[in-house]
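Quick bug: Carbon monoxide dehydrogenase output formatted oddly.
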Amino acid sequence: MIPQSFQYESPGTLEEAIQLLHQYGDEAKILSGGHSLIPMMKLRFATPEALIDINNIPGLSYIREEGGKIKIGALTREVDLERSETLAKIFPIFRDATKLIADPQVRNMGTIGGNLAHGDAANDHPAVMMALNATIVATGADGPREIPIDEFFYGFYMTALQHGEILTEIQIPVPPAGTGSAYHKLERKVGDYATAGVAVQLTLGDDGMVKAAGIGLTNVNPTPMRAGRSEAALIGKPLSEESIDEAARLASEDCSPSSDLRGSEEYKRAMVAVLVKRMIHEAANKARQ
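Here's what came back:
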């Protein structure tokens, strides 16, 4: 199928894009990479009256360290995340995640902002952002506002972005020394959506105690999910096989996968437990380095 007819707009400034959003109202969609939106339009699952292409707006693609945070512009491409030495040094989890996203053609155009704004629990970045305790910056007519990642996803393909707002930046606190992070997903074939995926960030003290933990789950819940009880099972304790097993068990219990072509509910819960164990070990190894 082909999309229904629509008005194409290509603003040159963020202010102009926001103005167009208000002009078209709920009938407008933002276009960045387009790898989720365009297929939905072809199938007519999405039928926007207008597409507002923000790719020509300058100043929305960057990776920089500032004020104790890593700041990533919403138009930063997946390939730039994959190749960034800054991210590789501080957050190795980005290379883990980006190399598993689709294929090189998609990664050359797909953006981190679009990945998050789409609100899909099957996308990889939401779980990563939860593990890293990121903050989303949304900009509207009244200026920017910050949204904690735990308040950003609240329904099936639904986010906290309000009418007239555009996701413009992601902010991630730079963790202390002794921190490691890792992500992996089980997939049926290269580039597929996850059967299950797990993102972990751990901070270990010199005494081996877990000082901080972040665990995000991919595609095993209607919305992107933080494994809060699993984090609590680790924090304040020595990292041991017993605490890791407990964290894995809790994540498997707390997620809510549905049976589909990628596997049964029971299988997905089992895979969550396996991946939580593996990613905790991998994040801990990186933390010790």
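Actually, after a second look the formatting is fine. Residues 265-288 form the longest helix (24 residues). Closing.
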